Amino acid sequence: MVLHERTLNVGLGLSCLFWAVAGIMADGWLVVRCSIGALHIVVGLLFLVRAPQVQIGSMDQLLRAVPSLILSGVAFKLRPAEWPFLWSVIFAAGSVGAIVSLMTLGRSFALFPSLRAIVTRGPYRLVRHPVYLFELVMVTACCLASPSWGRCLVLGLASVSLIWRVRAEEALLATSQEYRSYLASTRWRLLPGVW
Known about the structure:
The protein is an all-alpha fold. It has a domain at 54-185. The chain has 7 helices and 2 strands. Strands 1-2 form a two-stranded antiparallel sheet. Helix 3 runs antiparallel to helix 6 (149-173). 31% of the residues are buried.
């Protein structure tokens, strides 16, 4: 691993860990806040242990991932102060699914399109992008827990941008023979029977 890549990983990992702990401590122990904190802790730890990238995505592929990251962040910021019980349970379930998927991904974790070892076990046997599926569950919960036109617009834009992100990531991953074999065994990208 190149020194600057390792330094970046350590910086990002420690930053995620700091903000996770600070967010939980400042906001209390609400289920949604703890879910976000736990997710950030896992992401922070994965930054610290992730494997070197074999290949990085093109500038176009990297830029196509950015709107998804931004819109998910906007959706999380738009979350209501008071959560209806059902939506808090759906959000927590989405975060547990995302955490399990991220932990299964392990050292192959990346925020932007890059090629590392291909993971085909656990939830990756059912869909090719389970982290994004569960992220979409969380974004949906944020937007529909207290629906408004603005939140519904964010949900729609987040969904479309996630499709762009998946396509950009798959364009890079398809350069790997191992990933092309995985495509033959795992048909669905996000939702079995749909896409």
